[in-house]
Specification:
2 copies of one chain form a homodimer. By secondary structure, chain A is an alpha/beta fold. Helix content of chain A is 43%, strand content 16%.
């Protein structure tokens, strides 16, 4: 039995999902959150479906120790390939990925229904975004952009190489799309280079806000919203801790948070 | 008690270490090899020392199930940060990393002792190469090049972006070094772009051959070389299997090999 005072769990393959956490916290300020970044095994986007499903189930298992009332899969890759397995394993839990809310938001916002989606190899290969967008009547363009994540992690944000890579990946898209889904939590950081490559008149859709609004609606329907603010701190865990995370987290969140390391079994 | 007919174990974070396997097989054609690529958790180079040590010990444990007489750590990152722990844990096993042999070979080959070394963040941060080279009297330049691995994996081998990234990382090195250690198993694949950036007159040192010659010497001293060729096939394992591995392995090896997936516990 879920209780409204229980926290909301969020996992991502790394700390990029903190952008999703930030959006959720703004939309649901009374709620308490527990965040897990699987930094020991990232990235997920280049790995097989089977392995991504296994990692995702283990992450969920860890968060369930905190009696979460709801699980948000902030990672686009996990959302693309593991959400059905998660829902099958935990039928009583409200489980929300980033794909469906972002795709629906793109359909709402797109002026002429010409929508592009970029993400990791696994996300694009899964065809999840493309399917929902096509069912919504859109003309869809998609492309995996595997170098964007390492470029962000290298800190080459406003860098000629990043602009050149974006141009290479998104060549010709300027005339083809009016809306672009940033289908990976890292991409908002290099939004400027992406926007220059596709044309600055395009609508860019990020995951966080779409997911936050949807989660609020669902929790309200199920009477699972907290009636008063939580007085306990949100918790942040990673499976491999690097000093730089606390610095980087303050870039994402505008404040420094305490991040703890947890190891867990992978069998 | 080690027996000469036992196989040699090799591990790497991925399948890049097959370049090391290939060199070992050429130098030690009578021997049998068991290879493990920890593709479910790669890359290692961006992770913490503690986590890399843990992963390395688990990989060794897996290979010991095959009664290996010797362990080659093909991964530069593991060699940099985990080799002492491995030797402490398995004092009776011949354990060879890629760092020491490659550094000694660079010292032998360098015309004027001006040596550069490039690798992952963890390899460069460990200062292992730099220490051996300085003790050998060299003037040392070092730099982490985290984008080279994703560029190789994206297949952008002879690509303007790769040349631009190489120029950015190695700016000014042309006048500073006469020899360059490619301190990561992926780098030989983009040797041309690296060579253009540092000047084509430079000596490039790769890991495989240096390690093979050293291993042969040690096994001979300990009377652990096989006296007749093994008739059993070499074995190749990964922790996450992707279709593309068999195709990529044929690029590395000139032949296709059968690769099996194994999961193992991480506790």
């Amino acid at each position: 039995m879920q209780k409204s005072e229980n926290p909301i769990g969020i996992f991502d393959s790394g700390i990029g999902g903190l952008t999703v956490y930030k959006a959720l916290k703004e939309i649901l300020p009374q709620e308490r959150f527990v965040y897990l970044g699987d930094t020991a095994r990232l990235p997920y986007g280049t790995k097989s479906r089977r392995t991504i499903v296994r990692f995702s189930l283990e992450n969920a298992e860890f968060l369930l120790n905190f009696n979460i009332k709801s699980l948000v899969v902030a990672c686009n890759t996990s959302s693309s390939v593991a959400i059905e397995e998660l829902r099958k394993r935990y039928p009583d839990l409200v489980i929300l990925g980033v794909i469906e809310p972002s795709a629906r938001r793109a359909l709402e916002m797109s002026p002429r229904g010409k929508i592009g989606v970029i993400g990791t190899e696994a996300t694009i290969r899964s065809e999840k975004y493309q399917k929902i967008l096509r069912e919504g009547g859109a003309e869809v363009h998609s492309r995996a952009c595997p170098l964007f994540v390492p470029l962000v992690e290298e800190g080459w944000i406003d860098h000629p190489v990043t602009r050149m890579v974006a141009r290479e990946y998104l060549q010709g898209w300027s005339d083809r799309i009016d809306t672009l889904i940033l289908g990976c939590t890292h991409y908002p950081v290099i939004k400027k280079a992406i926007s220059l490559a596709v044309g600055q008149d395009k609508v860019l859709v990020e995951s966080g806000q779409a997911v936050g609004l949807e989660l609020k609606k669902i929790l309200k329907e199920r009477k699972l919203l907290r009636s008063s603010p939580s007085h306990e701190d949100d918790l942040f865990f990673v499976t491999d801790f690097l000093e730089k995370f606390e610095r980087v987290s303050s870039l994402f969140l505008g404040r420094k948070v305490k991040i703890e390391e947890r190891k867990f079994s992978l069998c």
